[in-house]
Specification:
This protein has 116 residues and is mainly α. It has 2 helices and no strands. This is YtxH domain-containing protein.
Length: 116
């Protein structure tokens, strides 16, 4: 995950924890019966859990999308580089073969001249 993604996840976790603590403290100091307060805390905890799951899903999808985009871009770039290298190799290979053939002919001619 990127550094930005870690920061976002940390901020999200901090906000959820702060909200949960605020809700719980508010309910504990509210002038209601314990049973009612516990029910509200439980309900609010369920709501916060659902919100956290939703946010996790959203962040997870964004990360997957970004990974897919980066992966796709990398594959395209790697393919392009591979084709460029192959084209360059083919070009220089043909030149080397041609030069080698010329050198072989020159050497053969020199050997023939030496044999005479």
């Amino acid at each position: 995950m990127s550094k930005n993604g870690k920061n976002t996840a940390g901020i999200l976790a901090g906000l959820l924890a702060g909200a949960a603590a605020g809700v719980i403290l508010g309910m504990l100091y509210a002038p209601e019966e314990g049973k009612e307060t516990r029910k509200k805390i439980k309900d609010k905890a369920e709501d916060l859990k659902d919100q956290a799951k939703n946010k996790y899903g959203e962040v997870s999808e964004k990360v997957k999308d970004q990974y897919g985009n980066i992966s796709s871009t990398f594959k395209e770039t790697a393919s392009s580089v591979a084709h460029t290298v192959k084209d360059g190799y083919d070009k220089y290979k043909d030149q080397i073969v041609s030069k080698t053939a010329d050198v072989v002919k020159d050497v053969e001619a020199e050997l023939n001249d030496l044999k005479k």
